[in-house]
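Notes from hallway chat w/ T.B., transcribed later so I don't forget. T.B. wanted the structure written out for a chain they're using in a teaching module, and asked if we could keep both sequence and structure tokens in one place. Agreed to drop them here.
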Amino acid sequence: MHAFESIIRVARTFDRAADHHDHPANSLWSRVGRQLVSRAGVARGMNVLDAACGSGASAIPAAQRVGREGSVVAIDLSPRLLAIGRARAMAHRLRHLRFLHDDLRTPPVPDGSQDVVLCGLGLHLVPNVVEGVQALWATLRPGGRLALALFGRDPFAPAHEILMTALRREGLSDEWHWPWERLATVTALREVLMMAGVPAPQVEVEEGTHPLPTAEDWWTLVLGSDYRAVVDRLAVDARDRVRRETLAVLEQRAIGAVRLEVLYATVQKA
């Protein structure tokens, strides 16, 4: 897939996912976003760029930390998620937070201008990850920090494989590769950063889970995430079969949580 086609696909996927993205069942976005801001050391008066910002999981807490003395520029490819983010910023009276429609490979801030650059659970969606990292790194001033959050190994197990089994019956999963797999280990992440000319990061692996109080909460997560790109390719009747089969297995096995390993990486510019 060409880079332009990939960008269009990502934008369309998350525009469709926007109606479920911020559902209470999908609290993982805000939880990881707050953690990323904390680990990045965002503080009052800083200039922050939040790349692949979604609806503001990192941008909102970052703007609250920097205060009016600082600024946060949040960029994403999904107009619908950006609209949600702007509404949230207005509700919190965060006038120093701007949500802009832009590609992280061409960030709308000058090189050497940012104290912190954040990218939470979005780097795997960039067609050329090395190019994306180089563009973000260039915006940092000397002493600035790049902070990344990425999905680790086997995200959403065991529900992921249950979904894959249902999709195989519809003939889809064998042709689909989940982009998060290419950055799911510390070794893979360090190799990408090295290729981008970025020093070796400090990486902490947080092993945890995401709760599923009901089986239906899993389908809400599917509709509000990367999975939307796959399920929306199905005809309505096939999508309903996948949903019913997946939820039935979850209920039968009494699965109340899924795996959520997150890699947090930070690196400071000399």
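Follow-up for T.B.: The beta strands are 47-51, 71-76, 97-101, 114-120, 140-151, 202-206, 209-211, 257-259, 262-268. Might be a good example for the class.
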